[in-house]
User: What shape does this take?
Amino acid sequence: MSALPARARPTAPPAMPSHAARYTGAVNFRIRAITLDLDDTLWPFAPIGARIERVLDDWLRTHSPRTAERFPIPVMRDLRDRIFAERVDLAHDMSELRRLTLRMAFEASGEDDPHALAETAYAVFFAERNRVDCYPDAIDALARLSATLPVAALSNGNADLAAIGLDHHFAFQLGAREHGAAKPESSIFLAACERLGCAPDEVLHVGDHVEMDVIGAARAGLRTAWVHREDARERHPAWPREDIAPDLVVPDLAALADLIERMPVAGLRHATPSQELQP
Assistant: This one.
């Protein structure tokens, strides 16, 4: 495999727990394309978020000391969370919510030009946002998946695959901001299917989030794969819903690529109970 961009380095592999979920052993339905979540599916977001806070705080101490003093990291985080909760009309636009948080902090600190400062600070944020450390399996598995089927990125976040250096693996990237609505709204899944030229039940949506990814995609009529990684097990040690279940459950993208590569060219339109493997 060719050298990876520094901004897309793989992280150290996690150890599998003894209470791991039961994983799908076969795909016995037909798909023609894949939509793929990004945060916590290709890379863990928590380290990115923590680093963004530190880098922005350092930047503020140099370029707006009064804001850094009034809004240390925990206070800035509280402001961000409050704005995100209040501005539900912007739930699909993480970039504008971030800009709004920065503008309000600069205004509250008495800066002369809060809008200009917010734009400069946002550029600092965005650079850090796109420094990702992929899961150890992710980049190789992504190459395998995209060599087998068209793959489209489908995300509520504001990561830029071109800036990260992974856009060549994707047919396109569809974000909530571009679409005007966020997962789990059905419309964003259906818009991706339309761009792929596929019926919803011919598309497999892959992601880590129970509601945003699996439930949202299933309600839109897509097939679903729940990526249940080690770093998700404190939140969901097992599938938590009884009304809707994922079509596939995998511990990582490498396992998904194994399944997709073994998938029959012309499979069944309706799934039958699949084999399960206990890791």
Q: What stands out?
A: The mean pLDDT is 87. The first helix runs from residue 46 to 63.
